[in-house]
Amino acid sequence: MKQFATFAALTFASVLAASAQTDEGNKLTLHGSIQSDVLVPQEDNRIGTGTYKDDVLTNTYAELHLMSKYVQAGARFEYLEHPLPGFENDFKGWGVPYMYLQGNYKWAEMTLGDFYDQFGSGLIFRTYEERSLGIDNSLRGGRLVLKPGKGYTAKEMKHTFPLIAADFANIPVTRVPKVKVGVVGEIYVKYSPLGNNDLQKFLESQDCEVNFPGLMGFVQYCAFNMGEDHVLYGGKLGTKVIIDQFLNYLDGIERSMLKATADAGFYAPGPFKELVEKPRGVISLGAKMGEGWLLTAEMIELVQGGYGNIVCAQPFGCLPNHIVGKGMVNKIRALYPASNITPIDYDPSATKVNQENRIKLMLAVAKERLNNPVQEPVKPLTAEELAGGAPRLNHEMANV
After folding, report:
1. What is the pTM of this model?
2. Which stretch of 134-143, 150-159, 383-392 has the lowest confidence by average pLDDT?
3. I need a surface site. Which of 95, 164, 170, 380 has the fewest CB within 10 A?
């Protein structure tokens, strides 16, 4: 009786929700189905059919669905009191094991109750019903599905990127040599004008071309670190597989965007999968605090891309950020002597004038080098050379 009461209450609630809608064009639809598989067992000792207590065996299912424009509800009644051979006796009985209430809107869908779902192609995770095999592994709980608006699917974005880049390329510009400045640092201080005292506006007022690495790189960095934990410390392989699939999905979109940007004549950094390789030998990928290895990788990316003048914006008191930022400056300068990196602390005790004066000193060096670029070494220094040189045998002393 309790199961029947639950079914009746769910149906009544869905009727009320649907009838409360004011959309005149909305129609309420009620439909259902009944399936009954019946077997009349016949004993035959010659083939060993066995003995059955019941004269009739049946698996019976009755479904009822109430649908409207914004609300959908349904339930399934199952009668397995005398199940067919091969079905689990643990599920013998009758009741309402499946019920749901679903709300739909333009950009979202919410389901409460029982539902089926799968991840990707279903190789890793899949729930489904197969009555002929006696399988029903539906999930019970809640599910929220966000639907991207028009133009936000991967296919649509890949189509739109070249169009956007072409529109920007059609804007008349006068290209003149300018000091190129990249900005890296702690995530808030880096992007927030409140946190960095309007750093972008100040650099533009000094006639600089400013480059802020994209925020999406930080999102990919956070996801990558979850998978890297499996490599460094062990853990669930499933997490690593899911993260890799997610990053592969983003990589396909990112490469299309970067290609469209480069084809239109604009500067395009490398994709995230290339960014991951840049700090190897300089800082461990296990350094994840204070923007971790990403901050070092972004500085190397900027130097390699022609933005050798870098402002490293750092918050007061964040020791991890100072290590991966200011602490890596000497190593990067050893690899790229032309790099001109200035760490700037943004804290309440530092005055804006003092911060801007330090940046102006960096820009003075940058402007001096604009027409006389520093020659880079033929090849980057090795880790041994950074540490002071590898031990070498003195052959002349050995011969004596």
Report:
1. 0.62
2. 383-392
3. 170
